[in-house]
Amino acid sequence: MPSEILLKIFSYLDAVNLLCIGCVNRRFYHLASDNFIWVRIYSTAFSPKRSNWKVNSVEKTAVSVNLLSLEDKEAGYWKKEYIAKQIASVKATVAQLLQPVNPYTGLPVKIKEALRVSGLGWVIILRDKSGKEYLTERVHLSVNDTSVSVVWYGKNWPCLATLSTLDLCGVTPVFMDRYKSPTKNGDVRRPRWRSLIAKYSLSDLSESTLMGCDGLIRVFGLSPGLLVGLWKREEELAFVMANLHLHQLMERSILGSATIPYDLPPHSPFLDDAPEYGLHGYQLHVDLHSGGISYLCGTFRNLFSKKGYIENGYMKLVVINFNNNTQHVPLIGKVGLSWRTNIFEGRIESCSIMDVTLLDDSGKPFWCFSSPVCMRLSTSPCDTCDFLGQRYCIDYVDSEGRVHVDLVWIEETEEYFVVNLALYLSVVKINHWFGTEY
Fold this sequence. Notes:
InterPro entries: F-box-like_dom_sf (IPR036047), F-box_dom (IPR001810)
Organism: Trichechus manatus latirostris (Florida manatee)
Domain F-box: 1-41
Number of domains: 3
Protein name: F-box only protein 15
Pfam families: F-box-like
């Protein structure tokens, strides 16, 4: 078919379909990048607001020169201009939505609206040992107090024995239709940017990462924040759950590339006006939850730690004290991690998702994470506590710190009480944050 006729046909297409048809072959790519087509799309999308004022001769001249110089522009110039302006427009809108901050969590108040406007979604890419990729769209999404939980499940998982890695990526549409809400799973046919958030090795699914099981599945935890469920009988994938803390989630899900995660900008240390007193005025927001049910959700203020609390490279922040009964709090409901697939659903006892948001004395997020955790029988002796129930503990550790929780099961009321909660902050992290030399 002659190029003139194809150009006429292409002129009736919108930006999304032009990009798609440009992927057919090299000839279609060049024709679908025609400047005359794209300048029309550009001027329609970003034309100035209508005005009753008469256009002056200077503006008329500028328009005519602009149209006459179309052929002088390199091929695809107006396509690139349109894409760049679309992206900048969405980023500006999202940045404005992220400005108001919740004083209790230090996180954006309008995060749900920002997610909707940006069209942000998440996919996992399973890669086998030969390099073949299997992209899976998310099935379920829930926005919690300070995190997002994304779940994938289905019947057509590739064989686990052939898989080597799993990539977690944020995906955003190249173009956003501001007058149309994104569909549940997004339109996979629309062009999308991909931003790598984390890469996991599936060889780490071993006894050391096993978190719990029920009659049907075993669940494994991979850092950061990933939960993988395997069928007990076949040892094949049942579901995958990613737990993403809201702190800098938009940046991590949008600003990275398909192969390299977003690199946080260099941190400028906050000057500590009284380093000899250690840490003071810290605030912790903690949420222990699963399946939309919160077992513990609270904010603890005015936390402090003295220089003398440094031990083994960590500075200790005591949130709930063993010896102060007034600080002990119960867990609400029966603790367990809810899971589901397209066929079955169940619950792993004693497992849940822990979200931690620690703010420094200026209200800035200092340490944030969302991760699956497991409650286990406590084996450590305790000479300072005298409780009449079985003791349990929850532990979490990463490069920035540790969390330790002690609980007691009260048989009479059939509930857990948190009798000790302590954070152990990495001295390396503190020195980097404040420019101190602890």
